[in-house]
Amino acid sequence: MTDTASRPTPSPERVLIFDTTLRDGEQCPGATMTFEEKLAVAEMLDGMGVDIIEAGFPIASNGDFEAVAEIARRTKRAVIAGLARAVPADIVRAGEAVRFAARGRIHTFVSTSPIHLAHQMRKSEDEVLEIIQKTVAQARDLVEDVEWSAMDATRTPIDYLCRCVEAAIRAGATTINLPDTVGYATPDEYRAMFRAVRERVPDADKAVFSVHCHNDLGLAIANSLAGIEGGARQVECTINGIGERAGNAALEEIVMALRTRADVLPYATGIDTTQIMRASKLVAAATHFPVQYNKAVVGRNAFAHESGIHQDGMLKNQSTYEIMTPESVGVQKTSLVMGKHSGRAAFRSKLEEMGYRLSDNQFQDAFERFKALADRKKNVYDEDIEALVDENLATAHDRIRLVSLTVIAGTRGPQRATMRLDIEGRLVTEEADGNGPVDAVFNAIHALVPHEAKLELYDVHAVTEGTDAQAEVSVRLRQAERSVTARGADPDTLVASAKAYLAALNKLLAGATRLHAQHAAAE
């Protein structure tokens, strides 16, 4: 048995973190973990400072028993809890599993609400009271640290709930959990329930009270915090909020709420918050449950900003739009996501970060092209911006510019391109057929700008991943003894092809102009 003095006892401001990712979290359909994955998650939880790890439900299967027992053997700091129904065999099995722990706990539970007693338990209130007394006493004979839970506490009449809690404490329970099993309560109700039970139950001060909230109405975090205000000093939660139905209260949200709003929630935890992101990714990988992008604290977008107004504020002072630093949860840095909502300040900062120094006119032209690209492309990557700016710089003095392009293509030829160019300020349009859409595009250019250059190279590759990736096209033209190569980039491969061909043609024209000027000067 574990020495009573070794049990974690919080100060009035200290809140214990009870993580049930390996038990309640794994009950989420499809979230089953392997033996090795459970060990890795338990090691992570212990290392980040979780006070109690509910390692599993030992009687559920031999695999669950072995996992709980092995976690109990390996864990260095945390109390290891095994769950047990209010059934003698369950309690024996849980006791066998956690006996290997330096600090073990049996967590036993029974339903208390009228709807559960009538339809699931099929027991009277008095019969359930007797079950509580016997099973809690049985657990206490095996370990010093016993937690008792009133399943569906928030739908249990307060008078009967107080009788059950009193019976559990009298039988030896050291932690009393009053869960919102079906996510039904509101914060005011949950806070009031804890206050009422703690005021009315004799010897309530001898037990630590615990919250365990499900998220069926999206109130798990609010209810958990309300329960703490009502006197609870243990929070039961899971990494990423995984759990049955809509999930449990998320550990990362509870911990960071207490840390960030210590001015109104003066409670502390022992969690090393810089390990939160690592834990989130480990659990997501083990359960194959991806974290939603806009998930609080650990979502991919939690520290990402795309809105121009937000990005401008972030560049001036991070606290304008971030109430906690990304480093505090183990994220390397804030991400200014470049997209259609980004403003000039963020775009200029991104260019400087990438090593570009543009004049005002060059910047304005590049920014307009960037906004046009962002309207067409969901994700704008650094490589997209690089291709866009390089093309912008290369074509700044072009005599021929693409205005518009429409291509008709498919299995029933011929393919046809309709092109509009700006040639030294003069707008011209032409249609041309071809043996394929690229050939039609190049034929249209040849019709609008007659020349003798021969195509020596045509190469296409994607700048970034995805079906909306920018295509970068390289074209090499040779005219007489001169050979020039140019690139064009665009999410539309045909537009990129036209840009690349025109860029090469502009280089040939610019070279011819310089050669003509040199001959004129010599004369």
UniProtKB/TrEMBL annotation:
Residues 401-523 are annotated as: Regulatory domain. The keyword Cytoplasm applies. Its EC number is 2.3.3.13. Catalyzes the condensation of the acetyl group of acetyl-CoA with 3-methyl-2-oxobutanoate (2-ketoisovalerate) to form 3-carboxy-3-hydroxy-4-methylpentanoate (2-isopropylmalate). Pathway: Amino-acid biosynthesis; L-leucine biosynthesis; L-leucine from 3-methyl-2-oxobutanoate: step 1/4. InterPro entries: 2-IPM_HCS-like (IPR050073), 2-isopropylmalate_synth_dimer (IPR013709), AIPM/Hcit_synth_CS (IPR002034), Aldolase_TIM (IPR013785), LeuA/HCS_post-cat (IPR054691), LeuA_allosteric_dom_sf (IPR036230), LeuA_bact_synth (IPR005671), PYR_CT (IPR000891). SMART domains: LeuA_dimer. Mn(2+) binds at residues 24, 212, 214, 248. This is 2-isopropylmalate synthase. SUPFAM superfamilies: 2-isopropylmalate synthase LeuA, allosteric (dimerisation) domain (SSF110921), Aldolase (SSF51569). Its cofactor is Mn(2+). Pfam families: HCS_D2 (PF22617), HMGL-like (PF00682), LeuA_dimer (PF08502). The gene is leuA_1. Residues 15-277 form the Pyruvate carboxyltransferase domain. Keywords: Amino-acid biosynthesis, Branched-chain amino acid biosynthesis, Cytoplasm, Leucine biosynthesis, Manganese, Metal-binding, Transferase. It is an enzyme of class 2 (transferase). Belongs to the alpha-IPM synthase/homocitrate synthase family. LeuA type 1 subfamily.
